Amino acid sequence: MEVREIEPSGPVEGSVRPPGSKSITNRALVCAALAQGESTLSGCLDSEDTRLMAEALRQLGIPIGTGPQPDVLRVHGQGGRLKPGNHDLFVGNSGTTVRFLTAFAPLGAGTIRLDGVPRMRARPISPLLEALKQLGADARDEAGTGCPPVSVRAEGLPGGTARVGGDISSQYLSGLLMAAPYAQSEVRIHVEGELVSQSYVEMTLAVMRSFGVQVARPDLLSFEIPSGQRYSAIPYEVEPDASAASYFFAAAAITGGNTRVEGLGRESLQGDVAFAGLLEQMGCEVHYSGTDINVVGRPLRGIDVDMNDISDTVQTMAAVALFAEGATRIRGVEHIRHKESNRIEDLARELRKLGASVEEYPDGLAITPGPLHAATLDTYDDHRMAMSLALAGLRVPGVKVRDPACVAKTYPRFFEDLATITRPPNRAKRLD
Q1: How far, in Å, CA of 224 to CA of 205, rounded?
Q2: Could you list the active site residues?
Q3: What residue ranges define each of the domains in the chain, with the CATH number in brackets?
Q4: Which of 279, 298, 363, 383 has its CA 20 to 30 A from that of 57?
Q5: What are phi and psi of 307, to 5 degrees?
Q6: pLDDT per residue over 161-187, tens digit each?
Q7: What pTM did the predictor assign?
Q8: 160 half-sphere exposure, CB direction, 13 A CA radius
Q9: Does residue 127 contact residue 156 with C-beta atoms inside 8 Å?
């Protein structure tokens, strides 16, 4: 397995424009596939997860071509019609792909099977399957484990009322919402219990509105989608990825540097832009313009924070916490145990290797900085583990990351882009 040693840096400096948002790209692909006619999606993320989504849609009869640039996709929507017949879809370890397409699959005609890598077979999907059954679909987990592989016998989605659990993943709800306009009757969805990562549901609704579909909300946990609405083919611009931006904000915080992320502002569709505000609470300066966010590193202090709504940045926050004065307590993120890795247990294990004191809780962890030292860190085939743990190496000599190539899942050029803002330590004053 490849091992990459991270070069320490003085205060980082420069501007970065991360690639397009994975979350928005895959939502736009689904809406464009269901529309009638050609949509041009620009600024798309070109990564493992988005390629898996695009290839699965092609198998289902949706022509998708590339434009003059690799971040442009031309989607020839089929008006809610899927290629009839049996299809075996490989979804890798892409949560958005398996959950969105499981909800999408009943609109076809035939048996559609979805499976992925071994880790995918440990990622829960039963709340989505139960909701689809309530809407009249035949969707089941083949092994009876509540996880993929999933088999859908498709003959249209009747509609009606469904209840879906919201405490494991908001992607179940997002998948149902995007497919619902093509049901045979009105769809009403009620979320049971806590809804995690609510900002991602707001993102889903915003993308749906852009493509011409409105969703009524009698209250925060209820959704009504009338039958007969249809998506319209449109040109659509995908924002840079806010989760990816968090690594560059964190690099400034950790090194006492100054980084500007282009293409994101306070009004982003993505809740993860709020990560910059957490760094401000820790002592950093944060400056916003309409299309940029600039973070200036300052001496850091630990904070106590509920990160339920921006849980994809938990590992980034953990890396910053290593260099703060006092403990940082992260709460409200029990659901991230079911992501690409167990992002609480596995993260705690790797932080301890670096010398931190870490206390694990059911819903998060507390990180107390200690004397940090060199370590070789495991990434668990988790792109966010690799990118966040690499940040520790900007201050700690001898940090090595195993399987750095796993960043290809969402950010193939991460290490190249990080190198554009790093500076040799002996050429700049380090943060005290």
Answers
A1: 12
A2: 312
A3: 3-19+241-427 (3.65.10.10), 22-225 (3.65.10.10)
A4: 383
A5: -110, 25
A6: 999 999 899 999 999 999 999 999 999
A7: 0.91
A8: 12
A9: no
